[in-house]
Amino acid sequence: MLTPICLIPLPFVGIEGMKMKLSELQKQINQQEDEKTTLQRDIEEKMCKLNEINASLSKKAAVRNEYDRTIAEAEAAYSKVYVCIIILARL
Fold it and tell me: Is the pTM of this model over 0.90?
């Protein structure tokens, strides 16, 4: 829960003191808003890069799977040819 701000100035602070505090508070708000904007831009850039990497990984995984399938088919075909050669050599 936020602490309420006392709007009743102390006698020695006066209006000028409150204006100085207001100015400082506004400066802090502006700095934090700038930082927030920078962080949001960084997040957007990182998300874009992450999406690019995910898309690239997906494509590369598909290609890898195709290589795996092709190699498995080639090895199976080679085994069949090898078996046929052994059988024919016995004849």
Answer: no
